[in-house]
Amino acid sequence: MIPFFVFLTPLFFFLQNNFCVHGIFDPIDFLALQAIRKGLDDLPGSNYFASWDFTSEPCDFPGVYCEGDKVITLNLGDPRAGSPGLTGNLDPSIGKLSALVEFTVVPGRITGALPESLSQLTNLRFLGVSRNFLSGVIPASLGLLRELQTIDLSFNQLSGSIPWAIGALPALSNVILCHNHLSGSIPPFGSQRLTRLDLKHNELSGTLLPNSLPSSLEYLSLSWNQLTGPVDYLLTRLNQLNYLDLSLNRFTGCIPGILFTFPLTNLQLQRNLFSGRVLPISQVTIPTVDISFNRLFGDISPLFSNVQNLYLNNNRFTGQVPGVLVDRLLTAGIQVLYLQHNFLTGIQINPAVEIPVSSSLCLQYNCMIPPVQTACPLKAGKQKSRPTNQCVEWKGQKSEKTNNITA
After folding, report:
1. Where in this chain does the record put each Leucine-rich repeat-containing N-terminal plant-type domain (predicted)?
2. What domains can be seen in the chain, in order of their start residue?
3. φ, ψ dihedrals at 7, nearest 5°
4. What are phi and psi of 376, to 5 degrees?
5. pTM for this model (two decimals)
6. Measured between alpha carbons, how far is residue 329 from residues 112, 284, 310, 335, 343 in Å?
7. In whole angstroms, what is the distance from residue 171 CA to residue 123 CA?
């Protein structure tokens, strides 16, 4: 067998003669870059590879950053806005860039599978190949990348399950796998550094165990999946959240009152199967709260009066609309107050009052005649009130008082 160094010898002298100013470029990295280049092309309008001339110093190529004689960062494609990106496939030779710390690809039309050889990049901390057309599965061997902090494979066509080995990576801080075709259950994530988990728009199913996600999470989006089961015990642990979106799943059980005390700026729980009473334990200051299209019941808490956008529609709420919510609406403190499709029996509001143009109120299809005419979403339908037989306590009588409509 001819030794490997015999093949490298001509390349070694070429590199020595041409790159002597900057030192000798690693020959294995040189061959790997050549193979990667052969697998990819510029889309029309892109000139990213125009200056990848292998008779010159590779460390001067756009997107290639070196430390000594090794490539440590590879950012493929022109990151400037509007660049059409690249086409082709990712060559397995990328696994030969042994010192690589960061690997990214700009949005384009790269197809094929994610190379298994990525698992050889034991120094890799950042992996970002989003908004392309990658297919196949996420290699379970990525679980060997113990230094990996960010993995972003969003907006591709990846399928199969999320490898449990990825969930076990100790340094993960960002996992972004949204907008793919991933299925199966969500693995437990053990990294106490994990702050962002974005798995929305997939085909994930199954339940979430109370200890399956770390309390370090600040951003959690699981919307548009097929997840089931209760999450109340899980949520009570995630008290660092500033964004939570569990919408369009099949979650059940109650919504814990303590959740409304978390430092959230956006709470999206709509279109699930949540049930029970909604009882915040203190004044809610979350700007947007959407718990619509569930099976929630009982009185509406006045502690929601400081919410700017409040969606309570399509539930089973009963009783009077708290006056403090009306007061806040009329002073434009509340911008959206959607109460349609419930079983509410009254609201204290003068029919002649003018609702601020910046605010929206919808009362359609409750157990009362709406005292004010307001613009509602088209999906609310045209019926102003529920049929009498659906409202046990409602007698269908309109109050003669202009400032009080009650059951």
Report:
1. 29-66
2. 29-296 (3.80.10.10)
3. -70, -30
4. -110, 160
5. 0.90
6. 53, 15, 11, 7, 20
7. 12
